[in-house]
Backbone:
């Protein structure tokens, strides 16, 4: 007998493919040449004149050489004359001031500051100022009462040191003169003090 061994093995083939650089299949070139405007005798541009056939052929040949024209590849080149007429610039309508975005943005910002100023003024006028005026009036009344109490105490001490009707009369006159002098110098304080007394009596 004969023994036979069969091996099934995988083979591996490595293939390296290098892609060729890009190739041009066909060229299609179109060239437009503007009309000439020769200067007149007055130095101003005259009437537009199209280029001649020789000039067009010369440009055609120049383009063929520059782009690498190949007729077998199916390349096409077209050179034609065209008048590049420059139309007048279109005048855009002037935007009204109240539609200008910059003006609108400025007005909005100014309106915010104005609204803040109005709110601050109302708060001061309705809330802060009355409180400030009340404390100021109370301070003036207290000052007037303090002055009158001090003057009364001084006059009382002077009256107690005197004897007889004459001195008492002079003490009353002094008090009256002092009250008049105070009323002349501080009329607002005396008026507020009288208001307070009248309010306390009602």
Residues:
């Amino acid at each position: 007998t004969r023994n036979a061994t069969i091996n099934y093995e995988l083979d591996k083939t490595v293939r390296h493919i290098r892609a060729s650089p890009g190739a041009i299949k066909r060229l299609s070139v179109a060239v437009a040449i503007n009309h000439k405007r020769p200067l007149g005798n007055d130095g101003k541009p005259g009437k537009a004149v199209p280029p001649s056939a020789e000039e067009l052929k010369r440009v055609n040949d120049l383009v063929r050489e520059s782009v690498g024209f190949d007729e077998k590849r199916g390349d096409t080149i077209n050179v034609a004359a065209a008048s590049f007429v420059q139309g007048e610039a279109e005048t855009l309508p002037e935007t009204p001031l109240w539609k200008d975005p910059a003006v609108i943005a400025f007005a909005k910002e100014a309106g915010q500051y104005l609204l803040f100023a109005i709110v601050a003024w109302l708060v001061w006028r309705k809330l802060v100022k009355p409180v400030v005026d009340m404390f100021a009036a109370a301070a003036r009344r207290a000052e007037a009462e303090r002055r009158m109490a001090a003057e009364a105490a001084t006059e009382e001490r002077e009256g107690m040191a005197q004897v007889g009707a004459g001195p008492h009369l002079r003490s009353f006159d002094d008090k009256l003169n002092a009250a008049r002098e105070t009323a002349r110098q501080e009329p607002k304080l005396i008026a507020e003090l009288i208001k307070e007394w009248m309010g306390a009596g009602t």
